[in-house]
Design goal:
By secondary structure, the protein is of the alpha+beta class. It contains nine helices and 13 strands.
Amino acid sequence: MAGEFALIDKYFARPTPSAVLGPGDDCALVQTTPGKQLAVTTDMLVAGTHFLPDTDPKNLGWKALAVNLSDLAAMGATPRWVTLAGALPTVDEAWIAAFADGFFACAREYDVDVIGGDTTKGPLNVCITAMGEVEPGRALRRDGAQVGDQIWVSGRPGLAALGLAHLQGKIELPAPWPRLCIAALERPRPRVALGQALVGIATAAIDVSDGLLADLGHICERSGCAAAVKLVQLPQLKDLAGSGGTYDADLRRIALECQVAGGDDYELCFTAPGSLSLTIAQIAARLELPLWHIGEIVAGEAGAVTVYDPDFNPVSFDRHGYDHFAA
């Protein structure tokens, strides 16, 4: 059986052209670009909490890196370097090889170097630290939203949570939705190009990992304001099932709950002045990425997010997002 260092050398020691010194020593050495600030994030994925234990390891490798790059995207940063640490219950070289394939496929796509890490024996989990660069004073933050700003979200939030519910047998999605939703869950696309395009335009931004309403609430809390979200302006999932029938109505209700509170989307939610809506539409067209204006920042209790129906009546939800330590 291969030992720890042999496994690292075989599957994770790759060239690191952007680093002064990559894996193999006590520390990696990197030289940041002159005049740039370093953005650093760490995210952990634990089997049974963040992914199903039987998840395809190649998809898990992709997702493990993608969710960290999503944090850099939310800051408008350019990804540069990552470290990878993990625990494995046993040495399964076929699993490790597939995980590495997915991980490095994501690294190649977003042009990042893996410069170090660690491995040990234990319950299956993966922990990544990602580093990127951003112009001083230009990072997108959570604390800049202003009353009157428009609220936007990218892509199709809710698909990942629907994919998880389908895999867990809680719902049965009609074709072609299982393929689309499971792909959104297991192969998220960090919106790096969008984050970079929003520098100087967005007043605040966050990636949607714990649920749209919960993460928007984080922006509002840090910015000292509230949010009004209009149900009719959310991305429509009305084509999820056919027309009519109790089953369809139930499925659409579940789809809406996944959309506003499901999480695991890794889309960007951001705020911007209404005067820049045309500029944002041009960004959407250039990136070929839907961007949805879903509401406004309003005066009110810091962190409060209210959803309104087409008649401007408040709509309540049992939850706004995921909390690891909630009862």
